[in-house]
Amino acid sequence: MPEVPDFLRRQPTGFYRSLNPATKLVIAVATAAIAFGVGGWTGPLSMLLLAGLTAAGAAITRRLLPYLLAASPLVASILLVNTFLYPGASDPLFAIGPFTATATGLTAAFQASLRVTAFALSVAVFSLTTPTDDLLSDLERRGLGRRAIFVIGAAISTVPRLLSRAKEIVDAQRARGLDTEGSLRNRVRGLVPLAGPLVASTLVEVEDRTIALEARAFSAPGRRTPLRTLPDSNVQRAARWAIALTTVALIALSIAGALRLP
Amino acid sequence: MLQLREVRYRYAGGNRDILAGIDLDVEAGQVLGIVGPNDAGKSTLCLVAAGLAPATIGGRLDGSVRLGGAETRDLRPYEAAQRCGVLLQRPELQLTGTAETVFEEIAFGPRNLALDLPTVVERVEWALAALNIEDLAPRDPKHLSGGQAQLVALASVLALRPPLLVLDEPTGQLDPAGTRLLADALLSLASNRGTAILIVEQRTGLLARLADEVAVLDGGRIVARGPAAAVLSSPVLDEVGVEPPPVVRVRRAVEAAGLGHRLGGLDLDAIDRSWPPGTADATDIVLRRERAPDTATGEAARWEAVDFAYPDGTRALSGVDLGLGEGAVVGIVGQNGAGKSTLVRHLNGLLRPTIGQVLVRGRSVEGRHVAELAREVGLAFQDPDRQIFAGRVASEVEFGPRMLGRSGQPLADAVRMALAAVGLEDLAEAVPFDLGYAKRKLLGIASILAMETPIVVLDEPTTGQDAVGLARLRGLVAALAADGRTVITISHDMRFVAETTERVVVMGDGRVLADAMTTDVFAEPGWPILRSTFLEPPLPARVGTRLGLGSTPTEAALVAALLA
Questions:
Q1: Which phi and psi (to 5°) does residue B213 adopt?
Q2: Does one domain contain both A122 and A137?
């Protein structure tokens, strides 16, 4: 009887990688939720630390850069808008032309930036340590429908594809004389003509890929055959519930003002 | 197995029928080849025949399309997928993007059908073996070459075990060895499993070997259909703009010169089919390599002891030493994954050597921006879709010269000249992604031509081109050469290389195996260099050798040798 080849029975290395995909998903969602939901510095800083330590433990710190770069435009705009345009702030620090930076705005800007960065890191740690197919198989085993699984799978695989397509477009433009090397000005200039083509080609690709999936019977009824069993345990099940409940409790207490943290 | 009656189809939002009354049948075990010029409706026919149009992409279908007796409009997509496996033109888009290994990629279809695990594994192993790609099983699909991705995409379709296969230019990115492998696999499926196959191909030589019947599509209509040998040698191919197979071209060229009797005892079909691939040892051949004489004074490009490894550790170039004179017209040939595209990407700085150095027109590229090198090196990518990004054909072509500082009338002239050179002058306002693949390929080339660089690199320019496109590209290379530009062409199309280049660089495993005059490479006794890299010389070269005529890489050279 034919057997699954050895290379598919991959044993994840390290504690975090070997967790069940659902456990890692719960940790990622909890990290992002606490970073955003718990006020002050403690929420975002502790989650940033947690995501950073997890990344270091899973030996993926070098691969975090693209995710941080992807978040950088949002972080930059948060810093600028909050620092200079924070509503109601009356503690000016300095002024640039008509815009005045405020201490309240600066504090809010840094806190919000930390939240976004913690979110980006939690997404990165999850996607870099979890094979997409393992996640989809596990979610399907837990009863999620085929369509929902497709949407999740497509969304996850879209990020690296977008990054790779963006590099292709930039390469094509550089090869025809667009200078994106050297100064910051050049690098920013390289980003401007990128957005339109990226969106257009992604939309074209979505149609082609839909055709390809349909041609491979993706919409067939029944549960897809799992290629391997994924590790799970009572301890992990309990941990998932504990993490989820703790997260909800922390956020609720923070919103209610009962959590007095710096 | 497949039956089309009075089929008319137009895309959603379209204002004309792309298919305008198609009747055809494909029976079990039959291979039906479809040929036609660009924009004849061939890819649309594939989508309609496979039940994907209009079910998945919309549009309006009139007439009847029956798969295994059932109307496609009554079938759900997954039901159609089990009756008909379809391979589209861009293999990389047929892969799921979620699988970590080729094995899992191929298992995707059978797993969707909820087959039990041993059956899934058996089907995957069978599909891998059918295409002789078992060694790819543990590889990451995202890191495959174009040719490998094409074979994996086909294996993924085969794993569904459909009784009918619809293949849209399945050899577009394959080297000659991959093409022969695919042909053998398809013949085996048709004869041993009774698989019905509808295959669209520009390589009519492949159809001559594979197809029982051939239909000629033009303007959305079938204008001829019959036994493959009869249709492929009929004048209708020339009339619609399709290249006849090599055997037909050689016979015609020789007969037109009144020398038909000289071929009397030769079985051209047997010579065409009898090529023994890959029996020579490449390690010996490296030592026998010869440097072709440079006729020009200056040097356009030089690779000095260049090694290159991709970030994942894949070694793509090893100890490459190569110099190309100004005005040289060079062909670079080799198997998929031999390092050809990697080599030329060092010229404009998109890749930098891990070891060694690269010089362009006498200056090292080290420390020079890609944008600066773009003034000297124009590189038309292998996959036009990795190059095209603008929303208008003219904007796409304008981008390069505009970045190089041109504006006003010189810019307009450069764009007009480039579009005219590839025959797209009437499509300046079109949306690039609305064009067919062959035209997108020509657009990619035009956008490089407009930069008017002294070095022009064309990566697989002939992919998907019909006879008109091929003739245009041959003329284009000749015109660039006459203008004194250095032209580097990477191609699996040995006929194109033989007809357009004066020098050939043969690559294998990231090394330069040979660097010699084109006539010498194709005239070697027994062609050990080409065989070592699974390439095949064009048919005229093989016929010339059989007749003891020396080097005859082109039909014109063969006729001239016969006359002499």
A1: -130, 155
A2: no
Residue A144 and residue A102 share a domain: no
Task: Using the predicted structure, report yes or no on whether residue B4 has a pLDDT greater than 90.
Answer: yes
What's the CA gap between B384 and B436, in Å, rounded? 11
Q: Which of B50, B78, B104 sits opposite A227 (nearest CB)?
A: B104
Measure CB to CB from residue B86 to each of A207, A215, A223 and give the nearest one: A215
pLDDT tens readout for residues B32-86: 999 999 889 999 999 999 998 888 888 999 999 999 889 999 998 889 999 999 9
Q: What is the mean pLDDT of chain A?
A: 83
8 Å CB contact of A209 and B47: no
Angle in degrees, 0-180, between the axes of helices B467-482 and B437-449, rounded to the nearest 10: 10
Same domain, A190 and A139: yes
pLDDT per position as a tens digit, B324-356:
999 999 999 998 778 999 999 999 999 999 999
CA distance B50 to B36: 19
Do residues A117 and A23 share a domain?
A: yes
- Domain hosting A168: range is 132-223
pLDDT value at position A242? 96
| Each residue's pLDDT tens digit, B290-321 | 555 555 568 899 999 999 998 777 789 999 99
Average pLDDT over residues B407-430: 94
Domains in chain B, CATH or no CATH each: 2-235 (3.40.50.300), 245-274+522-564 (no CATH), 297-376+456-464+491-515 (3.40.50.300)
Residue B334, strand partner residues: B507
Using CA atoms, how far apart are residues A47 and A34, in angstroms rounded to an integer?
Answer: 7
Residue B535: pLDDT band (50, 70, 90) is: confident
Instruction: Express as a percent the part of chain B with pLDDT over 70.
Output: 96
ipTM value of the model? 0.74
Chain A residues touching B116 at Cβ < 8 A? 225
SS3 B106: helix
Paired strand residues for A96: A99
Interface residue B411 vs chain A (CB under 8 A) = no
- Residue type for A161, please? R
Helices and strands in chain B, H and E counts: 23, 20
The answer to whether the CB of B330 falls within 8 A of the CB of B503 is yes
Cα dihedral: B376, B380, B386, B391 (round 10): 90
Q: Which conformational region is residue B550 in: left (phi greater than 0), alpha (psi within -120 to 50 degrees), or beta?
A: left
Give the residue from chain B lying closest to A160, CA to CA: B97
**What is residue B116's predicted lDDT score, i.e. its pLDDT?**
92
Task: State the distance between the two ends of chain A, measured CA to CA, in whole angstroms.
Answer: 62
Among B209, B225, B115, B122, CA closest to A220: B115
* Same domain, residue pair A115 and A229: yes
pTM here is 0.81
pLDDT at B284 over 50: no
**Closest to B50 (Cβ–Cβ): which among A5, A174, A215?**
A215
Alpha helices (H) in B450-506, listed in sequence order: 467-482, 494-500
In this prediction, residue A9 carries a pLDDT of 74
Summarize the confidence of residues B13-32 as an average pLDDT: 92
Q: How far apart are CA B518 and CA B502, in angstroms?
A: 5
> What pLDDT score was predicted for residue A192?
61
Give dist(CA A49, CA A118) in Å, integer.
8
More confident residue, A126 or B294: A126
| B418: Cβ contacts below 8 Å, ≥ 6 apart | B397, B446, B447, B449, B450
CB B544, CB B557: distance < 8 Å: yes
Do B157 and A153 lie within an 8 Å CB cutoff? no
The DSSP element (H or E) to which A95 belongs, if any, is strand A92-96
In chain A, the number of structural domains is: 2
- Are A218 and A229 in a shared domain? no
